[in-house]
Amino acid sequence: MLVVGLGNPGSTYEQTRHNIGFMVIDELLRRHTHTELTNRLFRGKLYKTSNFYLLKPDTFMNLSGESVASIVSFFKIEHVVVVHDDLDLPFGTIKFKVGGGHGGHNGLKSIDLKIGKEYERVRIGISRPDRSSEVSSYVLSPFTPSQTTHLNSIITHASDAIEAMSSEEISTIASRFTKKESL
Q: Which CA distances in Å does 114 have to 3, 12, 65, 72?
């Protein structure tokens, strides 16, 4: 299983809403003994644990599919899980699905173009800004102080679900780990 956390590389973006996928990968790396397999051909930071591969693409969000496709092809991986921020879900909501549309998310668009749409998704709600013209600056800005107090529990919950995904069906994961916004 390949778990891809979506985000943008560099310290400028570390604590931004768009990087919640990277934050989940960092939590999984903290929990599991791992080996780094990073290779410039992979266009990202790749790690191997006893149960899965973990990827943080270095391609910036809009080209995430290039990194994902290179690893899927090289290791012949069939089970791909993508962890990403979702503007259409209230902050704190976590949902799971297979396939579907990209909802305007450029990272998902790129992955769809490179490997198709039939991968599992861990959607983490970040809410939507008041004005649609502010979406770009909103996703690239840090969480509010109020949201930050809840961030660790959201990341922990998503990480728990991903660990279970290596041995359970997505329908079981969805019923066990879907988290409705209650913050």
A: 16, 27, 5, 10
